Amino acid sequence: MSTPDITLYVTRPGFGMPETSPFVIKSNVQLQMAGLPYATESTIPPQAPKGKVPYLKDAGEVICDSTFIRAHIERKYGMDLDEGLDALQRAQAWAIERMLEDHLYFAMVWFRWIVPENFAKGPARFADSAPEAEREQLRRTLQARKHEDLRGHGIGRHSAGEIAALGVRSIDAVATLLGDKPYLMGERMTAVDAFAFAILASILTPFFDTPLRDAVAGRVNLVAYVGRLMARYYPQHEWKPLREVETV
Length: 248
Hints:
The chain has 248 residues and is an alpha+beta fold. It is built from 10 helices and 4 strands; from the N terminus they run E-H-E-E-E-H-H-H-H-H-H-H-H-H.
């Protein structure tokens, strides 16, 4: 196979994570799973074709959205990241991925962006590169837009306690589905593990104090799962299990 001319446009390290976006982590991991050589380049959502990161350039072709990036990789390079799964297992993997991306992710975002303490030390810093006189207004605008996005999704219409309860229910579901297996679908890693790892690590980072973090930290199998995949796919990133961080 000739070397593909692939560039993945990513975010940047932050919040105790190798990337601030779990969707970037998902695509990074899936490209590594595929064994394709690729370069990365940092960008910001306003500079992306659809205003979202990640996106991919492959020999001049632009592919937006992590799900379509995976589909492009599999189609163009003749790969199947769900190899070995039967039709029922593929359907289950898709259902799990949708729960994580379209439900648990938004619960995580609410606690990052709307809780004042978390917003101030996290997403508010995205405005640091703006002229000093404009930063505070930009921060208010960014938070207000995210709040409207979350209300539009539906989860932002609930109280903090209700959002936590919804998120914890999804975390419990993932912990039960994983059980004592090394990966969600069994003994072999498949595509769904890329985002499961990404979202669980993004919640587990000690950078943010949230009830979702407490829930993940309390599921031993999820903590071990994140640790294994972090060591495998981001070996240069310094990652400490939550309990170790909080006892030093």
